[in-house]
Amino acid sequence: MDLKDNPKKPLYFYYLIAMGIILIFNTFILPTLMKMQITQVDYGTFLKLVESGHVESVEVQDDLIAFTAVDETGREIVFVTGRMDDPDLVNRLYNADVQFTKVIPRENSPLVNFLLSWILPMVFFIGIGQFLIKRLQNRIGGLGNAMSFGKSNAKIYVEAQTGISFDDVAGQDEAKEALQEIIDYLHDPAKYTEIGAKIPKGVLLVGPPGTGKTLLAKAVAGESKVPFFSISGSEFVEMFVGMGAARVRDLFKQAQEKAPCIVFIDEIDTIGKSRSSGQLGGNDEREQTLNQLLTEMDGFEADKGVVILAATNRPETLDKALLRPGRFDRRVPVELPDLQGREAILKVHAQKVKLGSDIDLNAIARATPGASGADLANIINEAALRAVRLGRTYVTQSDLEESVEVVIAGYERKNAVISMKDKLTIAYHEIGHALVAAKLKHSAPVHKITIIPRTSGALGFTMQIDEGEKILMSKDEALDRITTLLGGRSAEEVALGTITSGAANDIEQATKIARAMVTRFGMSDEFDMMALETVSNRYLGEDASLIVSAETAAKIDEETLKIIKVCHQRAIEILESNKEKLHQLTKLLLERETLSGAEFIAALEEPVG
Ligand code: ADP
Ligand code: MG
Ligand code: ZN
Q: What architecture is domain 420-605?
């Protein structure tokens, strides 16, 4: 039997063995032990022994007589004999001067009897029952929760268990500063109450996925050294009506007993959705849960020392009541990291892997604008995996660069079969992007060009990396970006006179930028600074929806098209006037399959010959 496999079994098993041993001892060994010392004799012998004066004492029991006699050597022996209906016995014993007595049958007290015959078996069966139910619950997993009515599954994290401190969260300095106050308060509430300051009851962490909200909450727990209750919003929404509300009640009861402490509700939008925006008929269960949460948050005083943290990436869907002062009135934005933040995050995660000597994390940070902390952690891990695949014991810069591309475009498909004709088209397309980018003033420098296909479906790509961090985009930059995106298709037209389906993604991106210029950035003459779209869902993919009449919508399309046409024309002009270069660079790319930024620039500056 594998003990590790089922650690509970041995204990239970040993109990059974122990019981078996006791049973065997009681039924077989004890009686034989007794028998060895007791000699059975017939009644006549007993009488003879009494008369001869050998018997010392007699004990008369219900159906037998036990007596002791002394043998020739003076040893005392215990005898038993069956009890006869002998009315003269008392006289005989009296005359022989023997000590004798009748044993009073031992009767247990009624209480003990009751306990033994009723309570003990009941306890025994209840025990077995409980055991079976537990096993059953474990078997059917989720359903087990349904049986523990109203008990919250909030896990209690204490400092030692999360083991995460602010040092593990890189960047996010503003968020850390806001949370530092809360940690400080939990350490020494008196400092705040003396002045009369009230610490906010609820703090909402908002930001895109993967920016470290959950990580920050854990770090707060690690830093503040108070009990930490963590529950995910979805855990409130249960299979039985009313359970969610019961859980909320239970969670807050536990928290108040353990105060000062932190309650963390992850993904709070699952329960905190605005009640009015409900689907037809609403969702009673969720609403009840939310109402209970609102009530509980009002139910305790701020100076109790319970601080509630919550995280969401859809703050706009949250119910207004949840956000009013006295509830989640403080909002801590956890935004995508900037260049500095990305480098810091890379540094934190790079500590966990063995690095070579050529590592430049700043370059990686520059290559990954818009990446979240989770993406960056993933990049480091992919690099380590690649190092192992290549049989190295440390990570090099090329591993990191390759894994950036893996995260952006997927793995390389080295053995994909692509015809020579398609390869030529792809090469012209990519060089088109690169050449247009190089000739434009506001375009980011080319970092890498490749025509090795990727698992994401990209047949090649041109990577551009800005020197520093770009936060604002000027109109010129937006136009140059569109022109660069359209440069791929334009090169196909200029060099080959054909057009292919390969530009679909470029077209989509270019249109998106052009459209945003018109509808949101106020960069068109026609609409000046009129807002034509609103962005809902800021942290999850920026879904924009038009807020204009149908006529205006048609005009927006016209305006967008105008921008695209101008940019397309510009790209074609650039390529036409550098046609020689276009052919030369494409030839080079076809030979090498991948060009670095430096190789590309060198070839570009080389005189055509
Ligand atoms: P979310 O905001 O979606 O809750 P998480 O906190 O779950 O994101 O972050 C996911 C992972 O990404 C973390 O476990 C961590 O490895 C990494 N990460 C995200 N942000 C940071 C950061 N600022 N510093 C270090 N690691 C981070
Ligand atoms: Mg999270
Ligand atoms: Zn392209």
A: Up-down Bundle (1.20)
Q: Which of 405, 430, 477, 559 is catalytic?
A: 430
pLDDT tens by residue, 317-335? 888 888 888 888 888 999 8
Selected from 1.10.238.10, 3.30.720.210, 1.20.140.10, 3.40.50.1260, the CATH number assigned to the domain covering 11-102 reads 3.30.720.210
Is the pTM above the cut of 0.90? no
Q: Tell me phi and psi for residue 124, to 5 degrees.
A: -60, -50
CA 609 to chain CA centroid, nearest Å? 60
Q: Respond yes or no: is residue 430 known to be catalytic.
A: yes
Closest ligand 1 atom, residue 205 Cα: 2
Ligand 2 being an ion, which residues bring their Cβ within 5 A of it? 214
pLDDT tens readout for residues 41-96: 888 888 888 888 788 888 887 788 888 887 777 777 788 888 888 878 788 778 87
Nearest CA to ligand 1 atom 9: 212
Q: Is 18 left (phi over 0), alpha (psi -120 to 50) or beta?
A: alpha
Is the CATH number 3.40.710.10 carried by domain 155-276+284-333? no
**If you take atom 12 of ligand 1, which residue's CA is the nearest one?**
374
Please indicate whether residue 213, judged by its CB atom, sits closer than 6 Å to ligand 1.
yes
CB environment 132-146: b (16+ within 10 A), e (fewer): eeeeebeeeeeeebe
* Distance in Å, CA 502 to ligand 3 centroid: 7
